Every structure is written in C-alpha cells, then in structure tokens.
Amino acid sequence: MKVSEIAKLFNGKLINLKEDIEITGLKSLFTADKGDLTFVVDKKLYDLAKQTKASAILVKEPIEDLQIPQIIVENPQSAFYKLIDIFYPDKKLKPRKAKTAKISKKVKIGKNVYIGDYVVIEDNVEIGNNVVIYPFSYIGENTKIGNDVIIYPRVTIYKNTQIGNRVIIHSGAVIGADGFGYYRENNQHIKIKHIGKVIIEDDVEIGANTTIDRAMLDETVIKKGTKIDNLVMIAHNCVIGERTIFAAQVGIAGSTKVGNDVILAGQVGVADHIKIGDNVIVTGKSGVWSNLESGKMYGSNIPAMEWSKWKRVLAVLVKLPDIYKKLKGKF
Predict the structure, then answer these.
(1) Which domain covers residue 264, as residue numbers?
(2) Fewest Cβ atoms closer than 10 Å to its Cβ: which of 133, 248, 287, 317?
(3) Is the pLDDT at 276 greater than 90, yes or no?
(4) Which position among 189, 194, 236, 273 bears the catalytic label?
C-alpha cells in the first residue's frame, strides 16, 4: 500500500512526500526499516523518531527535522492498529466438518462453519453462522453459540452454556465447570451439585486457560464487550459488567458483582459476595474484601523493595499492635 493511500484512508495530512513509497510492513520505532511504517504518540520519543529507519511515520503533529513522509492524523496509535488488521489479515478457513470430529445428529449448524479435527459436539447444541471451532475442543449438550464466534484449540465448554456473537475463546479455557461448593456433614466435605449455567454475551474475549464456573442454581454472566486475559478465575454466580477488563491471574470468588467499565490489574483477588461499582480501577496484586464505590481507584499492593529493607519494615509491622496500645490515650 502506498504512503498516499494510507494517508487518504485515515483522512491524514501528508508532509515530506518526495516519493510515493510502497509500504510493505508495520514495525515499532526501534525495529522499523526500509519499506516499514511506524508511529509515535509520546513527545518523549520524538528524538528516537528522528533516528528511525522507517519509510514513513504516523504522527499527531509534525516533527521538526524528520525528513521521512509524515502522515498527520488525530490518533496515530488507533490508525496503526487498524492498519495491522489490513496488512496482516487472519487466515480465512473454508467451511468444513472434519471427518474425525464427533458431532451429534441433534446439532443445528449455521452457514460457513468450520469444525476442526477431533472436535466433540454433544446433543442439542446450536451453532450460528461463520463460527470457527479449532481441533480438540469439546462442546457440551444444550449449548448455544452465536454468529462469528472463534473457539481456539482445546477449549472445553460444559453443558447449558450460552455464548453470544463475535466471542473469542482462547486455547485451554474452561467454561461452565462446577463451582467450588461443598457443605460439611459427618465431618466430611460433601459436593454441592451445580445445575446453573454460564452466559457469555456479545463481543467478549476470554484468554487462554481462563476458567468461568457455572452457577449453582442461576447464572454466571459475563456481559457484552468485556475482555478477560489469560489465567483468570471467575467463580460461580458472578456477574461481570459490560466493557470490563481483567488482566492476567485475576481471581473472583463466588457471587461477586462487578460493574461496567471496571479495570482489575494483574493478580487482583476479590472475595466472595463483593460488589464493585462502575468505572473502578484496582491496581495489581491488590486484595478486595469489601464493596468498592463507583468511579474510584483502589490499591493495597506492596511494591517490591530491597530484601533487607523489607525485613526491617516487617519487623516493625508485627510490633504495631503493641506500639498502638502503648500510645493509645497519650494524644
């Protein structure tokens, strides 16, 4: 694609164009070479941008003394991400039902569906149009899958699960396993049978090896537009709001309700029966054990520090209750 064509695509202003170069790749400032397009948004990187070997660059405003073609657009980062889709399109798989797949006769399959090798699909499953199911995945009975869904290899979807449109589920994810529930009787832990379901709404993405448990009686719900990273655990009866983001290794205990547009950073742990309001941000490694009000940023993580210093801090921490008793009433 020519530089001028890229500028036109995003209604950008093109400066320093001496030759309408063919762009053949997209790279970062640090790795771009001849034929590549790159981008910059942070003014702190402008000096590095002047050293780039790229053939052209996306910028928000002109960079002085940078002689390569500059395409000036409102949001260079967003434009660059859109170009990735154009330059590196996903491979389109032709409709197929692999001979090695085991598909019940009681399955409804839409148009243009790809079903890979060794996929197992049980009774009364409904699959929409343009769905891709990669090899070795399992889909339990009474499951409904919408249109334009991608299910990567070795995904396990238990029975009675509902999946909306344009959902992406990455390898190793388990949707609809029993919740972690037991009652105690005769000095034994007795398993509680879970008969609820999982509902995944439209435009949700679920990362590799993430697990979402079915509800005991009702529904575990992941609402539309939510994005879940790898290695996340969502327990039974949880309701996760719209457009919410969970980074890797987040753990959500049972019956928790998370609002819309929430961000939980890596390794955040949330206790059971918690309510987290809309537009909340929780920083990495924080523990949430009480309800969080909407629109606030929370964090209880302890950043790494030099080990000998942390031992001194810890020695003081364990003495704080006694220090408090001595000081109480003196002020």
Answers:
(1) 96-298
(2) 317
(3) yes
(4) 236
Q: Are residues 185 and 78 in the same domain?
A: no
**What domain count does the chain have?**
2
Residues 129 and 78 in one domain: no
- Has residue 119 been placed in a domain? yes
Percent pLDDT > 90 in the chain is 91
pTM of the model: 0.90
**Do 83 and 225 belong together in one domain?**
no
Q: What is the CATH number of the domain that holds 216?
A: 2.160.10.10
> Taking the CB of residue 219, how many other CB atoms lie within 10 A of it?
16
User: How far is it, in rounded angstroms, from Cα 306 to Cα 26?
Assistant: 40
User: Is 331's pLDDT higher than 70?
Assistant: no
**Amino acid (1-letter code) at residue 157:** I
For 99-156, the pLDDT digits (tens) are 999 999 999 999 999 999 999 999 999 999 999 999 999 999 999 999 999 999 999 9
In the residue annotation, 189 being an active-site residue is answered as no
Kindly state the average pLDDT of the residues 209-215. Answer: 98
Q: How far apart are CA 282 and CA 307, in angstroms?
A: 26
Say what the pLDDT of residue 304 is.
87
Q: Is residue 123 part of a domain?
A: yes
Tokens found for residue 330:
């003196």
Domain annotation covers residue 318: no
> pLDDT digits over 64-86, tens only?
989 999 999 999 999 999 999 99
- Per the CB < 8 A criterion, the answer to whether 270 and 253 are in contact is yes
| Sign of the Cα pseudo-torsion (36, 38, 44, 46, in order) | positive
Strand arrangement of the beta sheet that strand 132-133 belongs to? 96-97, 114-115, 132-133, 150-151, 168-169, 205-206, 227-228, 245-246, 263-264, 281-282, 297-298
